[in-house]
Amino acid sequence: MDYKFKWSIHNRSLDFIFILALLCVFAFGSLIAVILGANIYKGIKENMDSNFEFRTPLSYIGTKVRQSDVIDSIRIVEKEGVDALVLEQPEGGEICQTWIYEYQGSLYEVYIEKGTPFLLEEGLAIIPSYGLEFDLKGNLLDIKTKDHNGKTRGLSLSFRTSQGGGSQ
Fold it and tell me: Please, how many CA atoms are within 13 Å of residue 31, restricted to the half-sphere of its CB?
């Protein structure tokens, strides 16, 4: 009888160790799944942020340029050491200008009557920007932008109308 009692205790100990080992394997597997999921989420978020930082300024500037595609209405002007894209359009008998440029880490826009003096800091900051370049050659405008990692993407726009020149 003493032998049967020892076997029962020993058997319960083995059952307990087996259940505990199974619980540890499950916990370890769950932990690995959470860590992998967090890393995958981090990568997806990084890609989404990068795409936002590329697409938003390129889409915004592209739309503004397409709205101003009139003969000799688009040019690049340097102001205070910053290249700005200047889009002109007639409004109410006057020529108005939209200046788009990067200043202090943001994409800025200023809408003024042609010839009105302004400072770059007086513009409206639209979105954060990590690098913006314009290149105008004939009827082709190249826009390059960077994300927070320094990667560069660009957009090339071909005008339907003739543009007078590049940088001034």
Answer: 6
At residue 30, the pLDDT reads 95
Q: Report pTM.
A: 0.74
Within the chain, which residues score under 70 in pLDDT?
A: 1-11, 162-168
Can you say whether the dihedral through the CA atoms of 18, 24, 30, 35 is positive or negative?
Answer: negative
CB 58 within 8 A of CB 143: yes
Residues 6+ apart with CB under 8 A from 150: 130, 131
Query: Which amino acid appears at position 24 of this protein?
Result: C
Q: Report yes or no: 101 and 85 within 8 Å, Cβ to Cβ.
A: yes
Q: Is the dihedral of CA 123, 125, 131, 134 positive or negative?
A: negative
Q: Which two tokens stand for residue 104?
A: 């202090």
Residue 106 has what pLDDT? 95
CA–CA distance, 130 with 109 (Å, rounded to integer): 16
Q: Tally Cβ neighbours within 10 Å of residue 107.
A: 22
Burial of 57 (0-12, 13-18, 19+ CB in 10 A): buried
Residue 166: predicted pLDDT: 45
